[in-house]
Amino acid sequence: MADRQLKQFGHDIFSWVKAFPRNTPRYVTERLPIIKWLPKYNRTWAFRDIVAGITVGLIVVPQGMSYAKIAGLQVQHGLYSAYIGAIFYCFMGTSKDLTIGPTAVISLITGELVTELAGRMSAPAVAAISCLCVGAFTLILGVLRLGIILDFFPTTVLVGYTSGAAATIVIQQIPKWLGVPNINNRAPVYDIIIKMFQAFGTLSWLDLVFGLVSFVLLIAIGLAVDRWGRGRFAIQFIKISRFFIVTVLATALSFAINHNAPSDEKGNRVFKLSIVKTVPSGLPTPAVPSITSEIFSEIAPKLFAISIAVILEHIAIGKAFARKNRYQMDSNQELVALGLANVTASFFGAYAVTGSFSRSAVKFQCGVRSPFAGFITGALVLLALFFLTPVFFYIPDAALSAVIMVAVSVLISPPSVFIQFYRVNLWDFLSSQVALWVTIFVSVETGIAAGVAFSLIVLLFRVARPNFHVLRQIKDRPDVFIDSALDSTIETVSPPHGVLVFRIEESTTFPNAEAFKTWVLDETYKYTRFGGHIKPASEKLWSDDMDVHVRNLRKIAHGADSHVTDDDLPKLRAVVLDFSAVNSIDSTGLQGLFDLRDLLKDYAGVTDEPSTFFEVHFVGIQSSILHVLELSGITRPVAPISLQKIEVLDHTTSGDEIVPETANKKSHTDIGSAAVSVLGQSPFLKEAGLVHLTVRDAVDSVLIRSQSWENDHGNKGSDFGSISKTDIHYV
């Protein structure tokens, strides 16, 4: 129950605060996992960790610079994010495979934020404040162990918005990749495409050649290694390092073309193709991010979207590799590590970082053995910042665009994934499509919000309109009751006349209480007749159209050509409610049960004739629900009952009837509120109360209690008659 879990959560927080002083050393150890694994570090692991660290470093340098361009920042900011994330995670991470740093999706959302605040804040300032806010939010979730918030973001939405963001990035890079100048790649996707075709005549052929050749090389290397290099790490390493290799080759050619570029009348060098140009060497001076309250309130929704995207991407990737390698990842510690990494990075010119799928996959392929590989990666990026920035000057923008397009293309899910969603569940497919297309044509944060909102609406609809079932017993298995509508190949028979069995596949709460009550009543009208006194027309209300409603329901149930009348149907004698799927019940749901019971009693005729037999039985109630129902008085308390001598129907029969045999009386519990069979007694008398373990027990209990009632009332008005063999089934 949610209230019990909330109380337990509050108790855990109180206990944690109370015990914090004496548990501080243990808490520090938990927050710095390196304290645990470093003393146990095996020297044989070092080779794999160093190879993995260097390999990821060769990838993250060109990727980091490329992703910074997506974020609307200078390329060095991507490297700042890369080294801080990698080194920080070495000390606080709980996954050996995961590597954190700049990623495509987060770069895209950051770029949208930079564009939104252009003219009011500098791009580095926007990136820093977003990094700080994302880190603080993530850190709070981790410290308070509020990772449950992630459960409201379905996998289908994650797939949809990730694919949409990746497709958006690819489209944004096409102008630079093809050398089409003066295109605002922050404009809507459709506007980029239109403007690009309009300006196609002004493209730079040299940029086009660099872009196309870089793209073809990246694809060709990948395909060639996949075909001929399986199982051979040395060849696989070529594919892993292809971004670095192509970037180096393109930079070398660019230097050869541009190093003697002439200058214009103002002294500015005129290069023959678009290049990165000056990249500051070393590290920036630490600075505290600042923002006004007005701007913060304006961008809060986008900051929340970045935070959610950061957390979802990180946890999903980490869990995937932990599951693949069969080790445990502490999700709350991951949030703490991610939060502190972003908070720290915000002071050093970085933007928001999270787990990278592609780079984590590379670490896995390299056989990484511990988080120490992240330290090697961070150190390599630092070396690049201090010693290689002059080389970065000549990196072609077209080549960087090609690197971006190939790198993010793996994030675009193929059609087969969405087809699988469709086959599994239509609503899952629709939620993925909402997230996909809204992300492409509006924005990433709107895509996330739209996808999640759609999924929550579907969830609420499922709660408000769950599946209800009328149960019938299997002919050859009288102890098993199913909904015959779900499988017409199984032959079923109806319960005894006047007994209806219903199942609800959801908790009984305020969204579905009225629907459940209405559905049970409608099903009751279909298969039983009114047991009370029929009012004359003069006494009916002006709005009473029950006769028409019941007649229409019976046409649906028995066929439009049928002419089912009350004489063809039995009186209602009992309703059995299977609550085995009910996990919780609230006040509205409880009131709905009382209202349903009263309406059923009226329909059975109890109001007009108090001596009429009618009961409501419950099956499979969980202990927490049973406690609520007992307190409310709608069920009788289940408690041990003293054994009493009563007459029991023996198996000796006369014709089709089971008749009492006074010579064969046996001991049995009293037929009271919760009678239970005693070993050695008649097996069909298992339970005679209002709460039962199985539907079979409930139906048998109804038959036995109705027989007792008939004996006491002289069979007046009974549709059951005497209990026959066809009504009692031995289990």
UniProtKB/TrEMBL annotation:
InterPro entries to which the protein is assigned, alphabetical: SLC26A/SulP_dom, SLC26A/SulP_fam, STAS_dom, STAS_dom_sf
Listed Gene3D superfamilies: STAS domain
Keywords: Membrane, Transmembrane, Transmembrane helix
Recorded superkingdom: Eukaryota
GO CC, any one term: membrane
Record-linked Pfam families: STAS, Sulfate_transp
Presence of keyword Signal: no
STAS domain span: 489-662
TM annotation in the entry: 45-65, 71-91, 98-119, 125-144, 156-174, 205-225, 237-257, 303-322, 334-352, 372-395, 402-422, 434-461
Membrane topology qualifier: Multi-pass membrane protein
Cell compartments where the protein resides: Membrane
Any one GO biological process: transmembrane transport
Predominant location category: membrane
UniProt keyword Transmembrane helix, yes or no: yes
Protein name: STAS domain-containing protein
Source organism of this protein record: Linnemannia hyalina
